[in-house]
Amino acid sequence: MSLNRVPFNALVDDNGTGAVGTPWNKQAIKDVILDPVDALVGTATWAAVPFNVANFWPGVAASHVLVNYSTVICNTLIWIVQVYNPPVPAGGGAYLPFLLPGGRTILGGNAIMGPTAFAADNAVPVAAFLIPGADTQHLAVAKTNFAGWAGPNCSAYFTAIVGLA
Fold first, then answer.
1. Labelling 66: which of 16, 44, 141, 155 has CA 20 to 30 A away?
2. In the chain, what are the domains?
């Protein structure tokens, strides 16, 4: 959504005399600029993401999710997650999947990649990063060498900044 430019286009420049042109005051600035920008951008409010077992891999319980908060600013999701010590995915899969909060969709389907703040496999810290998940609604944490998670437990903490479709 873009700003309505009709009020801007209706402005008339002054010719230097101070006698012509559109008068501009605090109320006009509030009505024409500030209020529309506030409505477009919105207010960033952090919200706790309710626990749902479907948002993680099997075996993750609410007690494993230490932090799960998100906020959306324009079309950008900022998501902070800390999952501590759940069992690794069945078969020691190479990815720890995370469903984006609120059924959101990643812009372009795979426009996400970045470091994790912390990851551990069987309590041993490992280098890991965020990658696109199985579909446009999932992120995944993968080891930088793409090796499977050996377990029996793992942990992943990250802050993701995700462009939303």
1. 44
2. 6-41 (no CATH), 47-163 (2.60.40)
